[in-house]
Design a protein that fits this description.
By secondary structure, this protein is mainly alpha-helical. About 50% of the residues lie in helices and about 0% in strands. The longest helix is centred in the first third of the chain and has 21 residues.
Length: about 280
């Protein structure tokens, strides 16, 4: 009954996405509690990652760091030469555990997490590795759909470096447009949301690309992260405060990932601006 009242109250607030301060305070309190919960359940994990053995570990470690989990060591996602991994410090075995040692979704998560950590050294290390290896970021090299970093990822990495260094590191690829195609699967929606969030936090608030966010939000009305990234704070708040909220289908793997998803959606919803 309480949630129904809250839902009707928030919806009645209109589309200006101004959430009443008392309800925002409730979300903030819930966010702090869940963040502490994540810290407790990852205390014994290598590098503080949500999972230190799952082969999607790097993706969700980056999401957790972007959600405010400051104890997560994102530098652990890189080998000494800058090559990205799926687990902290080590690879998943190929092909027994994973088809390739990395993928575009892993690298998106790593960029997002290193951006949140403001770790320019690791981001630069990752860029140099990609540039020196023709953007083949892992093994086996023949598995290009996984190991080759796509243009959007290269541009995003360059934009994040440019923003964090105040323009000191200026790679021309940052000026290339980031093009998003139709969403053919749930994981693609997830990557679009994370890419848009990282790009916004790098100061790239392109109105034309916001159409992508609007479409993503419309296609996933029950996804709190999609609503938050699109700026639909009322809709995101309603979802996040619902005790029966179910994460979207792209949240799978380690049980901690459900908590990490909630935390990122809440963090974006609570941010007054997407730019830190």
């Amino acid at each position: 009954m309480r949630f129904l009242f809250l839902f009707l109250f928030l919806v009645g607030c209109g589309r200006d996405d101004t959430v009443p301060s008392n309800i925002t305070a409730e979300l903030e309190q819930m966010y702090r509690g869940k963040l502490e919960q994540l810290k407790e359940v990852t205390a014994e994990h290598v590098a503080g990652w949500p999972s230190d053995h799952d082969c999607d570990g790097a993706l969700w470690a980056g999401i957790a760091r972007a959600a405010g989990a400051e104890w997560v060591d994102m530098a652990a996602a890189l080998q000494p030469d800058g090559r990205p991994t799926r687990r902290p410090f080590v690879d998943c075995s190929v092909p027994d555990e994973s088809a390739a040692t990395t993928s575009n979704d892993m690298i998106t998560g790593i960029i997002l997490g290193l951006q949140a950590a403001k770790d320019v050294d690791s981001l630069s290390h990752l860029y140099r590795y990609g540039e020196s290896h023709s953007w083949v970021m892992g093994y086996p090299e023949r598995f290009v759909s996984r190991t080759v970093l796509r243009p959007n990822g290269i541009t995003l990495l360059a934009r994040v470096l440019y923003h964090l260094t105040g323009g000191e590191k200026d790679y021309s690829v940052r000026l290339l447009p980031m093009i998003y195609g139709p969403v053919a699967g749930d994981y693609q929606l997830h990557l679009i949301l994370l890419s848009r969030l990282a790009s916004k936090r790098a100061g790239n608030l392109q109105s034309a690309v916001e159409i992508v966010e609007t479409i993503a939000a419309a296609s996933a009305p029950n996804d709190a992260l999609a609503q938050a990234v699109a700026g639909n704070k009322v809709a995101a708040t309603v979802l996040l405060l619902n005790p029966n909220y179910q994460p979207p289908s792209y949240v799978r793997g380690h049980p901690n990932y459900r908590l990490v998803h909630w935390l990122l959606a809440a963090r974006v919803t609570l941010d007054k601006s997407t730019v830190p």
